[in-house]
C-alpha cells in the first residue's frame, strides 16, 4: 500500500461516507402535489332553472365522488384507481347521463360508452354501444388491462365482459322515468323540426322561420356525461369518461367520450383530460390530444392550451367543456356553455364544487 498504514485508508473511507456541506443523511424531499378534477356534464345549467333541492343533490353527489377519488390518492393509490372510484359513483347516480339514469336512444334503449387512459404507460381502453354493463368504465379498464385491444363495441364488448366474469344487467336497470319523458319531448321537437324544414323549403331562399326549435331539441338531448382526471403521489396521470350519449340518438351513434385523444386522454409528460359536450365537434378537434400537443410542442401552460383548444370547438359551432390536470397539479375547467357540473380537490388544500358559469 505504498507504505501508508491501513488506518489512513480507513479514515479516508470514513470521511467519504459523511454527507457533504453538513447536509442531513436522509434529506426529506418535498411532497409533490396530487389530486383530481371531475365533471358531470356541461350545458344550459342555470340557477333559475334549479330548485334548491336539486342543486343540493348535485353538489352532494359531486362531493361524494370527489372525496372518494381523493381518498384513493391520499392513501397512495394509483391515478387509474381514483378515476374508477369517481366515475363508478357518478355512473350509479340517476343525476347524470352515465350508467343508471342514462338517456334513451330513438328505440328507447340505453347505449353506453366509456374510456380510460393511463398516462404512465399510455395504455387505454374503451367500450361503445354497450347495453348491459352496469359500470361501463370498469369494462373499459378491463379492455385496457386484460385484452390486446383499445376499443370494443356492442355485443362483442359484452361477450368479452362475460368471458372475464362480468355480470350483465337488463337494460331496464338504466332506464328512469325522467329519461323516458326527455325522450318523448325530444321526439316531439324532432317532429316539429321536420315540419319546420318542410315549411322552410317552400319559402323564398334565405328566408327562415321558427329556427329555435332545432336549438331546443339539441339542448334537450345532451349533457350529463361524467369524467375524471387524476394525478397520484407518484406523479402519474389518468383520465376517464363515461356517457349515455344523446337523447334520441340513432344509427349506432358514438360521440367523443370513448375516443382516445378526443374525449379522453392522458400523458404523464403533459396532462390528463376528460371532455363533455357536442361530441362530433370534440372528435374533429381531437381535443384531449390537441391540449397535450400544445403543451409539449408549443410550451403552453395547461390553462392556455385548454382555452385555445376549446375555442377551436366553438369556432366549428360546438359547445361543451372539459376538465384537465397536468403533471404539476395545475387544474383547468373551461366551458363555453352557461354551466358545467365540476369540481377539484388537491393535496395543497385547494378544492371546489361548482355548477354555474358565475361560480368560482
The largest β sheet comes out as:
8 strands, mixed
CATH class descriptor name: Alpha Beta
Structure summary, number of beta strands: 12
* Count of runs of 4 or more consecutive helical residues: 10
How far is the N terminus from the C terminus? 73 Å
Q: Which word captures the global form? A: globular
The average pLDDT value, as a whole number, equals: 88
The portion of residues forming beta strands comes to: 15-25%
What does this structure look like?
With 360 residues, this protein is of the alpha+beta class. It has one domain (35-175, 218-356): (Glycosyl)asparaginase (Glutamine Phosphoribosylpyrophosphate, subunit 1, domain 1, 4-Layer Sandwich). The protein has helices at residues 6-16, 52-74, 79-91, 136-146, 154-163, 177-201, 212-221, 279-285, 287-297, 302-316, and strands at 35-43, 112-118, 124-130, 151-153, 226-231, 237-243, 264-266, 271-277, 320-326, 331-332, 339-346, 351-356. α6 (177-201) packs antiparallel against α7 (212-221), α8 crosses α10 (302-316) and α9 (287-297) packs across α10 (302-316).
SSE blueprint:
Elements: H1 6-16, E1 35-43, H2 52-74, H3 79-91, E2 112-118, E3 124-130, H4 136-146, E4 151-153, H5 154-163, H6 177-201, H7 212-221, E5 226-231, E6 237-243, E7 264-266, E8 271-277, H8 279-285, H9 287-297, H10 302-316, E9 320-326, E10 331-332, E11 339-346, E12 351-356
Labels describing this entry:
Glutamine Phosphoribosylpyrophosphate, subunit 1, domain 1, single chain, four-stranded antiparallel beta sheet, 10 helices, alpha+beta, globular, eight-stranded mixed beta sheet, 20% strand, 360 residues
